[in-house]
Structures are given as C-alpha cells and as structure tokens.
Amino acid sequence: MPADTVAATSVTKDIHAWEAGAAESAEALAAWVDARLAAHEAALTALLAVEEPRTPANSLRLYDAAIEHLSLAGAQAGILNSVAAGKAVRDQAQLEAQRVAMAASALSLNRPVYDALAAINLDGASPATRHFVERTLLGYRLAGVDKDEATREHLQSLNEKATRLALEFSRNIQEGAKTIEATPGELAGLPEDYLARHPAKKDEATGQQRVTLTTDQPDMQPVMTFAASAALRERMFLAYNTRAYPANKQILLDLLATRQEVASILGFRSWADLATADQMMESAANVRAFLAKLDEASRQGARREHQQVLEFARRRQPGLTAIDITSRGYWYEQFRRDAFDFDSQSVRPYFPYDKVEAGVLDTAARLFKVEFRPSSAPAWHPAVSVYEVFEEGRLAGRFYLDMHPREGKDKWFSAAPVTTGVRGRYLPEAALICNFPGGEPGDPGLMQYSDVVTFFHEFGHLMHAILGGQTEWAGISGFATEGDFIEVPSQMLEEFFRDEKLLQAFARHYQTGETLPSALIRAMKKAGSFGRADWMRSQLYYTTLSLDLHDREPGGIDLDAITRQLYQSLQPWTWLEGNRMYASFGHLTGYSSNYYTYAFDKVIALDFFAQFDPADLLGCEAGARYRKMVLEQGGSKPGREMVRDFLGRDEEFSAFTSWLNEEFASTAGALGQ
User: Which residue range forms the structural domain that includes residue 489?
Assistant: First the structure.
C-alpha cells in the first residue's frame, strides 16, 4: 500500500472517541482504540515493506502515520480516564491507556523499525525533519533497541509493569477524594459565598449541626488559606494528603524499583540519569548543580519571610513558638492583610469564573493574533465548552474547556492534547481539565487570584499545543519538546496576570460591574510578591524529593523518613506527623525524577517575559517573535536553540533573581523599614 494511502487512513473518520459513543460505553471505547491501534500497525507493516531506498517521503511518512494513530488513541483514552462520568468507562479508559502505552513501548524496542529509520537518506531534508529523525533514533537507543532479543523482551515487560503501576497510582489519587466534617463555628474566616455553598445540616445521631467539606480544590484551598480554626485546617490537610494512602505507598515503591531495573539494564547509574539523558539538563548531576543555585538564591529570602510571618503570628497569638505546615497559608494571608493592607478575599468578587475565562481568552487572542469562536462541536460531557481557533479567517485549531469539579473527575489542573496537529492532515486540538469554583446554577465561581494565575498558566500550554501543532510531522508537533522545556510557555503566559491594564479589561465585580481598582491591584501585586522565596523552597522540596527517590538504589527506601527529613532540611514550617504527601504527588508518575522542570523553566520564562515591553505587553514586537520562534516551532528544534533564537543567548538568572527579590522592596516599603 502506498505511503500516502496508509498515512491518510482514518485521518478524519472517527477522530473523536466520544463521537463514537466512547464517553458512555466501555465497549465503544475499546472498539475505537482497536481501530486506532490497527491503523498504527498497518502503517508499521507498510513501513517495513518498503523496498526502494528509504526517504522521508516513503518511510518517515509511514512512521509518522503510526505515531499519529498511537498519539490519538493515547491522548483520548487518557482524557476519558480523567473525565468520563461513568466509572465503567474510566476503568476501561485506564485499560486502554495501558494498552496504548504497551504498544508505544513495543515500538520503542522494535529493531526493524529502528533500522528502517536509520536507513533514511536525509540529504536535502529540512532541519525539522533531521531533528525529528535524530531525536527519534536517540529515543530508540535510550529505550534499549540495540540490546539482544531476550533483553528487549525483558525491558518490554518492565515497561508494561511501570505503565500499569503509574496508572494505578494516578487513579487512586483521582478517585481518592475524602470528606471531613466541621461545625459551623469552625468555618469562621471563610468567604460568604463559600459558607452559602456549604450549609450546615443536622446530624440525626447527635442532633448537632455539621458541615461536610471535600478535599476537592474549591473546598480545600479556601480552608487552608482563610479558616481561623487550626483544628479544621489540620483535619483538611491530613485528609488531602492521605487521599491515596496507604494504597499508593507500595505502588510507588514497586514503581521506583521497576524504573531502577530498567535504568540498570540500559547501563545507567540511576533512573534519574536515564530520564535526563535526552533533556536540556542532560544528567542528574546537572540537575543537582541547578538545585544548588536555587538553594542559594532562595535561602536568605525564605528565612526573612519566615521570621517576619512568625513574629507577626506571635503578636497575634502570644505563646506561639512555631508555625506548622497546616498553618503556613493562613498566617501568610493574615500577614499580607496587615503588612500590605490586602485581603485576598477582597479581589474574589472581581474574579467570577465567566469573566476570568473571557479575559484569558481575550488576552491570548490579542497577544497571539488569533480569534476564538464558540463551537457546537461535541465533547465528552455537557459541562465542556468548545472553542475554535481562527487565524486570518482560517480554522487553525480547536480546544475544550472542562473547568469545574464533578464526581469521578480528575481533581487537578492540566492541559492535555486531544489530537496532535499535522499540517494539512490533522487539526491541532487540546483540552484544559481543571477544577475551578463555579459550574453550578447560581454560583458565580469567585476565584482567588492564584486561581486566575493558574488559568493563565494552563492556557499557555493550550496555545503551545495549538500554535505548535502546525508542523509537518506528528512526532514533533505541539507539546513534543524536551520534557524540561514544556513548562516555559505556561509559566511565561502567567506573568501577564501582573499587568494592571490587562487585569482591568476583565476584572469586574460580579454584582456591581465595578472595575478592579488600581489601588487594590497594586496592593495585590505587592502582597503577591511576598512569599516567592518560600514558594521556591517548596519547589525545591518537591524537586529534590522527586530526584532523590529516583537517584538511589530503591531497596530499603523509607518513604516517610525521606519525605519528612527532606522537608525539615528545606522548610521552616513544623512537620505534621501523618502527612503522606508522596502518595498523592501525581507528578512522580509523569515527570518522575524531572520535577525540576518547573523551576528550570521558570528561569527561562522570566527571561522571556523580560523581553516584552511593560508599557505594551500585548502589542509589542516581542509577542510576534515569541510566537514565531518558540510556540510555532512545537518540537521541531531543540529547546536550547529556541531559547537562543528568542533571546539571542542562553537564559540568565538575572530576571529570575529580580522576580525572587521583588518582595524585599515591597515589604520594606509596606513596613516602613
């Protein structure tokens, strides 16, 4: 069968699993994935049957077609695993995601396919095509394709085991939501709209009034920030951080052992060295050197922040000797109210969900010179909003917003590919799966300013998928950069939240329509800058934990001891026994050892943002350059090249250091120091 014929198979037919009934039927989902995997295998068969000299046209195109179908199946099985209303469909989606991952593992160890790709004549090929082939061949070698058949079979079985364990780990977090009970009095300090959503009910057994709260983000975060009751904060903290405990403890230990065995077979000292070998960072040793720089940059500021907050708390609560891990957010909020005359509840009425969504879309449309139009395209749930992206009248992409909690849905915030874009073949599509307030009749969904920043962050991922989804090859389209470059677009866009004019374009009081006052914005920005060093210490903690767990022999690992000891070495807030955060640290399955990505990409993103004109963020020339040199590239060139293309140099720490230390001037001014 000719390459073009095979590659075109099912390009537009049944492209969405939910249009085939897969969101309501486990059987329909299995059949849909079957069809995608069959098309994947057909493309590989055609690839291996090519007899003439290999070229990108007659061989790489077939390989890329196989990638297209595999990506399509994996992306949509993953989405339904996270969002499907019925547990039977979610269970089937988990099985299908595992099946797709097994097919991907088998492909990564397929020696005949590797040999076919290695034989492609790249004379005259574009730089993007060369990068695609070279990066693909490197991936094959890192997977162990050059090992003997018995070793490849063993690696395949280990990869399948790791996939199953990772999916189980994530599912336990997703479905591990808990509830806690509170008395009405314990809700003192929480916003009025929160109290209205959580009316007290009489306990028939005791006759007392009780309020039921969940560990979902819209319930949990306000408690940890605003609730005056230390007992309530502690109960919520422990419930939230034990959602997947004890089930995930042994699963994580088994996963760490499996990953280390894979790394050892492949000749690497640790999984962390293997996982960084094809990343911008290149090795675990380089990660540790970077973390040492973060440690040095944040240590003094974090100590100063902690001392100021502790002294403030002692004035409010005489006899207090320390602030524990459950009270950090509460005392930071109280301090900001006093030092900066800023109560974060005061801005919530200006951030109703619908206005924020419109503001984020308007910001992105103006920055990237595109248009968003509501679409009637079907989705997996009635609560999902669908938009189409147009550029100069041409349909350029589509995205799905699934933005509020519901039973069984993944409780985190993420961006996910729906279809990987390929120029002239597939329209790039992506989804945001979030858990913001709102979504219920009569609930305006008042958001904290940190929620708005998160929305900007996730939309940065989405625009990367859409604008980077116009490449020639599926294998380098959209998100397909190095894993430690992928957070740059998201963290760059969230910085736009700091602009006063931009905020006032959409931040309107949900009852009066009043624009968010400039004085309140300035207070919010000053208050928001306080705590950055402490936030970086938290990132350092998560990053070092993910690295340490994957950079040692797994035998004898004591998860509780490692987690506690590391926390106490990096954080000043008193540890709380019973905290099992590792069991619900979902990034341990996705990023594995490479959680450093967030901090590393923050440095790059802030350097990128510093190139924009603060007087005209949305209209300056940097926006067009950023889109062309970074977002539109997808994964068609190394991240290091994209950094140099946009900056004219490698990233520097100066913008990051200025951002990290912005608080000092703000705090000094606020406190009269």
Answer: 348-533+596-671
Looking at residue 372, the DSSP 8-state letter turns out to be: E
Where does residue 522 rank: exposed (0-12), middle (13-18), buried (19+ CB within 10 A)?
Answer: middle
R_g over Cα of the chain: 25
Q: Residue 39 sits in a domain of what CATH number?
A: 1.20.1050
Please check whether residues 138 and 197 belong to one and the same domain: no
Distance CA(310)–CA(327), nearest Å, equals: 11
CA distances from 505 to 342, 356, 362, 622 (A): 21, 10, 9, 21
Token readout for 280 is 């911008």
Does 327 map to a domain? no
Q: What is the CATH number of the domain that holds 465?
A: 1.10.1370.40
Question: Residue 210: in which H helix or E strand, if any?
Answer: strand 209-214
pLDDT at 673: 32
Q: Do 16 and 120 sit in the same domain of this protein? A: yes
CA distance linking residue 475 with residue 150, whole number of Å: 28
DSSP 53-86: PP-IIIIIHHHHHHHHHHHHHHHHHHHHHHH-SS
Residues 467 and 418 in one domain: yes
Angle of CA points 363, 661, 659, to nearest 5°: 25
Its pTM stands at 0.94
Residue ranges of the chain with per-residue pLDDT less than 70: 1-13, 663-673
Q: Are residues 125 and 223 in the same domain?
A: no
DSSP string for residues in 555-614: TT--HHHHHHHHHHHH--SBP-TT--GGGG-THHHHTTT-TTHHHHHHHHHHHHHTTS-T
Listed residue (623, 645, 633) closest to 470, CA to CA: 633
**What per-residue confidence (pLDDT) applies to 5?**
47
**pLDDT tens-digit map of 507-566:** 999 999 999 999 999 999 999 999 999 999 999 999 999 999 999 999 989 999 999 999
